[in-house]
Amino acid sequence: MLLHGHQILFRNSNGGHAYSWTGKKTFEDQWLRIGMDMTFWIFYSIIGLKVVTALVLDGFTSQKKDRESALKDMNSMCTMCGITKDDFMKWGIDWDTHIHKEHNM
To answer: 65 and 73 in contact (C-beta within 8 Å)?
Structure first.
């Protein structure tokens, strides 16, 4: 009995409603279908485009933040010994000398 109900459900090609679009031949009969299809695809395209654009922009924004953070760290802290550039200035050690001579970077 349950199988019979599924067969009826899947055999109905009208999307579950009782109105059939296939028997209509003139524009007057199909104007509602055309309008509904156009509205669906316009909204579907706009929403889909917005979602994809948001995901792409979000990905690039996070990459930019990560890159800027890494560049800031590389220019303000020795990556080998973890001492900040300000500490080297307090101790009277030249930053470039430390990086190039002591670590050969």
So the answer is: no
CA distances from 19 to 13, 16, 78, 91 (A): 10, 9, 73, 85
pLDDT digits 0-9 by tens, 72-101: 888 888 888 888 888 888 888 888 888 888
Residue listed under structure tokens 């199909």: 30
Residue 16 amino acid letter = G
Structure tokens at 3: 């199988």
Q: Which two tokens stand for residue 88?
A: 């080297």
What is each CA distance from 23 to 14, 28, 29, 38, in whole angstroms? 12, 13, 9, 20
